[in-house]
Amino acid sequence: MNLRRWGALGTAAVSLAGAMVVTGGATAAHAITGCTWGTIWINGPAGAELPTTARGHSHKTGNHYVKYTNYNPDSRKYVWQWYADNSGGNDGDTKDTFYGYSACSNTPW
């Protein structure tokens, strides 16, 4: 590829990355676009960690919950870190994985 084509691809990649940060990207679920939560149960199946309640949302695709939150003084927003409750698999549990961020005016606690 010539330099002009690489430059255009780089510009497109930066633009797409910026859009993903703003919108939450292709992996973002509707649950994390807002700053609301309900009480849900996580770690339900046999073999998982002890069942517990969490602040999050339940979907057909699984449970997503707020695991951490911190305050960003620059934006004056709370950053909610969402995780997927990966209960299941052969042993009844799979390590929960990072799911996405929300910038909210309130803390979920």
Overview of the structural elements:
- The chain is of the alpha+beta class.
- It has one domain (27-104).
- 19% of the residues lie in helices and 38% in strands.
- It has one helix and five strands; from the N terminus they run H-E-E-E-E-E.
- It has one helix spanning 3-23, and strands at 38-42, 52-59, 62-72, 77-85, 97-104.
- It has a five-stranded antiparallel β-sheet with strand order 1-2-3-4-5, with no helix packed on it.
- A hairpin with a 4-residue loop joins strand 3 (62-72) and strand 4.
- The radius of gyration is 18 Å and the shape is elongated.
- The N and C termini lie far apart (52 Å).
- The relative contact order is 0.19.
Features:
19% helix, 1 helix, alpha+beta, 38% strand, single chain
Helix-strand category: alpha+beta
Mean pLDDT across the residues is 73
Main beta sheet: 5 strands, antiparallel
Helical content class: 10-25%
Q: Span between N and C termini?
A: 52 Å
Keywords: Signal
Signal peptide: 1-28
InterPro entries: TAT_signal
Summarize the structure in short.
The chain is an alpha+beta fold and 109 residues long. It has one helix spanning 3-23, and strands spanning 38-42, 52-59, 62-72, 77-85, 97-104.
SSE arrangement:
Blueprint: H1 3-23, E1 38-42, E2 52-59, E3 62-72, E4 77-85, E5 97-104
